[in-house]
Amino acid sequence: MANRSKKMAAVSNRENLAKHVDAFLKAGGKVQQIPSGVSGQTSTSGPRQIVLSHKTT
What is the C-alpha to C-alpha distance for residues 32 and 22, in angstroms, rounded to an integer? Predict the structure, then answer.
């Protein structure tokens, strides 16, 4: 029974998303297709690790 409710929820989510997309497009919004492999990350410089504390000796 849980499997059926998951499927129903997925259909409901899909329908909800479709309604939101339709409203967005009707309001003048535009969808931009981004090529595969392009990142939304704006800066690649700087440290990538988080330092939680600096130990003093």
Answer: 15
Rounded to whole angstroms, what are the CA distances from 20 to 9, 27, 30, 49? Answer: 16, 11, 13, 37
The CA-CA-CA angle for residues 15, 20, 24, to 5°, reads 145
User: What is the pTM (predicted TM-score) of this model?
Assistant: 0.49
Residue 2: which pLDDT band, with cuts at 50, 70 and 90?
low
Paired tokens of 33: 């297709």
AA identity, residue 36: S
pLDDT digits (tens, 9 = 90+) for 23-53: 999 999 999 898 888 887 776 676 677 777 7
Following DSSP, what letter does each residue of 46-57 receive, concatenated? S--S--------
Identify whether the C-beta of residue 39 lies closer than 8 Å to the C-beta of residue 33. no
